[in-house]
Amino acid sequence: MLRKAPGIGADVVIFDLEDAVAPSRKEKARDAVSSVLSDQDFDHDCEVCVRVNPDSVATDADLAAIERANQLDAVMLPKTEGASDVETLARLLDEHDLDVAVFALAETARGILNAEAIASADPVAALAFGAEDLSADIGATRNPGLEEVDTARQHVVLAAAAAGVDALDTPYTDIDDLDGLREETQAGVGMGFDGKQAIHPAQIAVINQAFTPDNEEIEWAKRVLEEREVAEAEGRGVFRVDGEMIDAPLITRAERIADRARAAGEWASDG
Question: Distance between CA atoms of 61 and 55, rounded to whole angstroms?
Answer without folding.
Answer: 10
